[in-house]
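hi! just following up on the protien thing from before. the input was this:
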Amino acid sequence: MCLAHSAGVVPTSQSLADMQDHAPAIGRYIRTLMSSSQVTPSSSNKSGETNPVQIYIGLLQQLLAGVGGLPVMYCLLEAVSVYPEKLATKFVDKTEWIK
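and the predicted 3d structure came back as:
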């Protein structure tokens, strides 16, 4: 919800259909954030990461590990798919965890 708000959309609910409606604006926002900073795919917020996209992805990973669920996985997929050349490499060795 915070990411959507920062992207300039007004998140009205947490339904998957509403999330999909906001995907283009969120995608543009993520690309802007990623292109405005020098981010390495292996960096994480544990090592002092300050890029909000990397922090968001880290939080989603923690939430998935603890709670799981389709909406959380959708948010992770949405974020990673927008900039796969920089973000997907982080998940190459985690395919079993994703399944």
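The helical segments are 2-6, 16-35, 52-66, 70-82, 84-87, 95-98.
Confidence is low (pLDDT under 50) at residues 39-45.
cheers
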